[in-house]
Specification:
Number of domains: 3
Structural class: alpha/beta
CATH superfamily of the largest domain: Response regulator
CATH architecture of the largest domain: 3-Layer(aba) Sandwich
Number of helices: 12
Distance between the termini: 56 Å
Order of helices and strands: HHHHEHEHEHEEHEHEHEHEEHEE
Strand order of the largest sheet: 2-1-3-4-5-11
Radius of gyration: 24 Å
Largest sheet: 6 strands, parallel
CATH topology of the largest domain: Rossmann fold
Helix content: 40-55%
Amino acid sequence: MSTPTVYDVAARAGVSIATVSRFYRTPGAVRPETRDRVQAAVDELGYVPSGTARGLANRTTGVLGLCFPDFHDAGAANAAQADDTELMLYSDEVIRGMQRAAGRHGYALLLTNSRDRHAGEQLAEAAGRVDGMAVLSKTVSPETLEVVSRRLPIVMLAGRRDDAHDHVQVANSKGQLELTRHLIVDHGLRRLTFVGGPSDSPDCEARFQGFLAAHHEAGLPLPEQPHIRGDLTQAAGHRAVMKILDGRGERPQGVVLANDQMAVGALRALASRGIRAPEEMAVTGFDGIALSRLVQPTLTTVRQPMARLGKEAVELLIARLKDRKRAAVARLLPVKVVRRASCGCEPDRRGSE
């Protein structure tokens, strides 16, 4: 028996091909009794719609894309520092949020990695297979973005806003300001060290600015730059704290790291030297990944709505597909300080755990 086609479904249900197409793309636009007839024909014939065929008909793919960096600690010295299969869990949460939102709109999600030197080529190639693309900031060059955005809608995730693209970010500086203020005011810590991310990461730099703002408020010395920078992995956090411990001069009372994964690595480094956190050195992170509440001591952090970043990206892409000429939209999402044991607090029981 030959594979059933959309023509077979239309004939069996007694409707037009356009009605069958609407049944799949916008079922709410089809009358209930007509939907029942089409569904009955689909079930009887065993018809499966072809995304490729639909795309050829209306010049769309039914797919949205996400370009993100795959940070993986393949170069870690040993398993105690990081697992070779460790992924950047922040991206995992963004992907999950975007995938769910895309599915609700009838779209699939295509992922492309931007970690290596072929990132621009990979993005350009993926652009030919999607209707719109979300791109994590600084993962590809501005030149590549400009070329790709001529072909399809682009939403930027995180980083600095520009007037050319829709943009979603979180309140990085404010969140880090509130967390650092908590360490200074509530715990009386005066010697704090900031471990930053890559210098070209706008989010990490915004967090450092929040760290500086809290020091300015308290009348404390302002460092010109992060004490150490890392690549946002557990291994980088481990290396940074080992370097701090081996350095000369008075040890800091607390280490503020640019993300949770580095903070987890920092806790491991302290444990390997027999240094208690937070009694001898407080440790904090940023992101609010699941791992932050599983480590010991549990990690004080700034929780950002990672899944919501993905959801908002989809909503902006859908809106842009409907109106390509509207002005660029920027959304700033709130964050929340989560106080846990690694800074000396009891776990926050007010719904944040």
